[in-house]
Amino acid sequence: MNDMVAKSVKPPALEEAERLLEVKRNQIFIEDDAFIGNPYALLGRVLEIRSKNGVCTSDVKDGYADFSAFPIPGIVVDENSKIKQPQQVKSFIVDTKLSTEVGVLNYLNASLDTESIFSVIISNQAVGLLNIQDGSYLNGVRAWVNDNQNIINDPSICHLLIVTGVVMKNIIRKKYKKFDVTLKGGGFGINFDGNLYTSAEDYSLDIRFGLSYLKIPIPNKTELIANDLRVGDQLITNQDVGGFFETGMLKGLRINQMNSDIKLDLINVMSEPTDDERAFINKVQYRK
Prior knowledge:
twelve-stranded mixed sheet, alpha+beta
């Protein structure tokens, strides 16, 4: 039997799979054919994370995410972040364990069981980032917050996320099933875990978008300041952040007066989700 097997393979470990797939810490994966022609249109979009029962708890089985009708205005895309040609990541085997553990592969889990595996080839077709150090980003976030107070104050809104990075991944997959040795005839395929897996299927293509995100802080729902931040020797408080959204000033400085380090620090401490927030966000379902 082993003479008919093309090669012996095994799925990568979780850490290796995430490295190969370039999975980021603040990243969710969605399917949405509307953006295939222009994935960069996702940059600056706002995701509204909602609870159907209007209560934002750690139990989000009824939670879902929709795109807001209103993107962040005036954002600037970092043209240097775009790739000039597709980047092949790698081909590898996906079993039920790996499809459960890795976000971009979760959708394959419904088609897998203990008797089947997928061979996948994944490539990055497009990559892009916002230039969050440009003053347009903070100005745009502030304008969005002030223009959308009805969304900010909606009790069913649990989190608001800004898409700051996008990667469009092509996933070419082929399903293999464990060979039934009681059947007559032979088969060529994959040696997985000491068993022969064969396939009668053609390759199929799926497209998924990896969205890197930062949060919009919501008073009384999310932490406005995740870590200490200072401007000079002055400690920034939650009240200062609230005042920034109202006036556009932080400790007497307007956005165009802040150096790049201050702007980046401000973005990081007020927009980086906590571990609890990230765990919440990772559980919700995206609804097209």
